[in-house]
Specification:
Two copies of one chain form a homodimer. By secondary structure, chain A is mainly alpha-helical. Helix content of chain A is 62%, strand content 3%. Chain A contains nine helices and three strands, in the order αβααββαααααα. A three-stranded antiparallel beta sheet of chain A has the order 1-3-2. In chain A, α1 crosses α3 and α5 packs antiparallel against α8. Chain A is globular. Chains A and B meet through α3 and α4 of A and α3 and α4 of B. The first copy, chain A, binds a DNA duplex through α3.
Amino acid sequence: MKVTSGGAPLAAATGPTLIARPSRLAEVAADQLRTLIFDGTLPPGSLLRQEDLAARLGISRTPLRESLRLLDLEGLIETAPSGASRVVDLNGAAAVEAMEVREVIDGLVARLWARRGLPAARNRALAAIVDQMDRASSLGDKKEYMAGNASFHLELLRGLEHRWLDQFTSLVRVSSQATYLRLESGTDRLRLSAAEHRAILGAIDAGRPEEAEHLAREHVANAARHWVLGRGEQGGTA
Amino acid sequence: MKVTSGGAPLAAATGPTLIARPSRLAEVAADQLRTLIFDGTLPPGSLLRQEDLAARLGISRTPLRESLRLLDLEGLIETAPSGASRVVDLNGAAAVEAMEVREVIDGLVARLWARRGLPAARNRALAAIVDQMDRASSLGDKKEYMAGNASFHLELLRGLEHRWLDQFTSLVRVSSQATYLRLESGTDRLRLSAAEHRAILGAIDAGRPEEAEHLAREHVANAARHWVLGRGEQGGTA
DNA sequence: CCGGTCCGTCCTGTATCCAGAATCCAACAG
DNA sequence: CTGTTGGATTCTGGATACAGGACGGACCGG
């Protein structure tokens, strides 16, 4: 159980950064690879050759291989029986499965926060993110909206400091990103989504675990309908 | 390079065993280590020295290190910033967190099976397991019951062949095992638990996703109450 | 007698090297 | 022209060797 920090653009506010870390090179490499995957430098389906990547990151193959195993278990890459690794391509069944897991995980996160109680500072930060998403949705700025969306969910997930939940950081990142990148519809879904975020935050802040979980699950289910199934109507039961 | 071929006591039973796999030594080592942890050879808190383990498994440190990273991400071991790894000790807060995740995961598994439809052969196999648990509960054979309990949940989990769910195998194993090992009460809880399993299986077989998920979550929550919190009464809200 | 510091040993982390296997290309036969 | 088969290249997997830091114990000072 280590950090799995990820190159968070603006979410990396909580790091204690005590004194000095022995810097496990495999961890650093994993972070680098995640960044390369998320920013599109390593597109889905890309073949990952250990020697190239090692040279690219300026390390040897040994720690790189460990990082590949990590990303494999995280579900970010997949390794063929022959040993060839490639960036996972979330489409069709794989996307559905990813969102199935995200639904219950996000629901759990919301429930735990509602039960634990949301600190005022974090509430303000999340509210600010939702405001940002609102603005972005009004302007139809999908990229900006996507960034806020990812920040919102990651802030909740990472903030819990839950040892069994940290590993879902990559899942949340990749699915959040892919969801709205593929979203072709207008600003309608964006507005609705922003409202859903605000509702989730409200339920958490009000300390209503059941409601928070329900709203979070519905939110993910709605996103899945629009992303994976393509332009579904909202309101159905999961 | 003999991989202590005689090993693998019981872990390599479920594999499809298509033709022949190149046998990634790190995977084999991970399985071996899981077995050693689950059967108590490596008790919680044990310090894991790479050189010793490598010699013990008859491999070098390179693949062993990869397996340690895997087990780390799975939550079965934890690695200090200095690099020292030790078997995770599920007690107190860690146990609560583990069961929180298990609750939603097992709920998702039940829901997916109910939606997908349970093949008759698998239904029979699961029913047989529940029967075995019934007998064990009547006799108060906790060990036998525990085995059936783990089999039940693992059969459901692994049978889905869900790419994002496989990684919870260790979580289910360790929590299932620990739950009933610590259970000191009489056969009452065992009987109730067996009934819960039967109800879950019934809901799945009847194709009722919502009910199956609800029952599965309640089941885990009940187990958690008796295990972690010690002798709680059922019926409370999660 | 107790505390602090220095030193030795062990362990982890990383790099390099070797062997086996898969893949790809090309030449050849039908 | 196409399918097949042969070989050479290349890649991954595993083992070994080396460097840096951590931990523990003994020695010295108070």
